[in-house]
């Protein structure tokens, strides 16, 4: 086999993320023949495990069909396990020896290395330092390091981590995952905007009244309350997933599809946003609602044993942002996110201004809206006015509807992790977060997070399964959002 060899190392191989996401993703990519032939998957963790034990942890998440059983065994044959600590070099030396051996059995061709850090943040620095000291390529192949949030806790800690990483790796070796960038509809945003002539003339403050990016979940913190209480919803999804979507909605057209051209435009948007102020934020925390049909709804956020009884951590937040540039001055961008709400839905909603010179009876015309539903049930639809069909002359609101399930019925949409991991193999960083993007996202949110936490501002209680605090709707209305129903 003369294909170059690759190793994909999963640090934290026995953890939740590895079991639920990374191993299943590697299997699907392998099954679909999307990976190089000569690849070894190496699990690394502290526990005394074997490949068999690892397998029993992730197999159920791999959804192996009856006719794929042989292929799955082939996948398992490519898996190995190394037991090692995160804070001394013994395990990393074992890993190096494994890679050297792999090179020797691969016609001595230099091994390309992908290191996935599915690890808690307190070991990030040690592990990356050990990798640098022991496990890098010699310049005749490549090394790419994939890291998962949290990338710090605020601007200061994130800068500290970024400085540490940039001493060890070049920017083109670092792949900061934000899995929302791997979602079909998020990847579709640029095509919709820059691939359709009708969009450009109306995509600005003259025509758009507001942009809403919302993320709702109808479940609570699940078994993750311990982590969640140190983060809160603003760090968990707003600072990263929603902020990334905002940049794609608001950015100027890049000079080309080149990675750095795109990331440059995204950073310019972030630079034009001032830190959010407390007056432009509503935070909430869910309380029990036994009437809602979800097992978690019986307990409020603070009833979880991993959450302090006086926790002021928000499980819901609405924040209003303004992009101060020629295109967007005066247009509010709402980001709304929460757990324990009435539905699971993530979407981007562009609300257009009223028509000028309205000739219809007062109040009949509704604002046009363009909605991109990210999750679940991907769709793009436009709410428009139409004549009521039939003899009458009245108007009504309807949808031009591109629901993927009907239009692209039978087309499998890959999971976000599948796309992103494949992109790392291919060396494409378009959908990964550059250091300066991260820095600006924290710059915008750190002051308000500090204020909320230092003043111990109590989130508004909302019932599990509700729409969240009514105060959020009020703030949106104050900024001109019109609830069209
Ligand atoms: C994660 C958050 O980044 O995204 C979770 O930590 C959240 O709290 C998850 O549930 C949502 O991802 P998805 O793909 O299910 O919308």
Automatic annotation (TrEMBL):
Pathway-wise, it operates in:
Carbohydrate degradation; pentose phosphate pathway; D-ribulose 5-phosphate from D-glucose 6-phosphate (oxidative stage): step 1/3
Question: Which GO BP terms, alphabetically?
Answer: glucose metabolic process; pentose-phosphate shunt, oxidative branch
Keyword NADP on this protein? yes
Fetch the Pfam families from UniProt.
Answer: G6PD_C (PF02781), G6PD_N (PF00479)
EC number(s) recorded for this UniProt protein = 1.1.1.49
The terms describing its cellular component in GO are:
cytosol
The UniProt GO MF terms for this protein read: glucose-6-phosphate dehydrogenase activity; NADP binding
Which reaction equations make up its catalytic activity? Answer: D-glucose 6-phosphate + NADP(+) = 6-phospho-D-glucono-1,5-lactone + NADPH + H(+)
Domain named Glucose-6-phosphate dehydrogenase C-terminal: which ranges?
190-481
InterPro entries hit by this protein: G6P_DH, G6P_DH_AS, G6P_DH_C, G6P_DH_NAD-bd, NAD(P)-bd_dom_sf
**Range of residues in the leader sequence:** none
Q: Which UniProt keywords apply?
A: Carbohydrate metabolism, Glucose metabolism, NADP, Oxidoreductase
Role summary: Cytosolic glucose-6-phosphate dehydrogenase that catalyzes the first and rate-limiting step of the oxidative branch within the pentose phosphate pathway/shunt, an alternative route to glycolysis for the dissimilation of carbohydrates and a major source of reducing power and metabolic intermediates for fatty acid and nucleic acid biosynthetic processes. Catalyzes the rate-limiting step of the oxidative pentose-phosphate pathway, which represents a route for the dissimilation of carbohydrates besides glycolysis.
- Family, per the entry? Belongs to the glucose-6-phosphate dehydrogenase family.
What name has this protein been given in UniProt? Glucose-6-phosphate 1-dehydrogenase
Q: Which species expresses this protein natively?
A: Caenorhabditis auriculariae
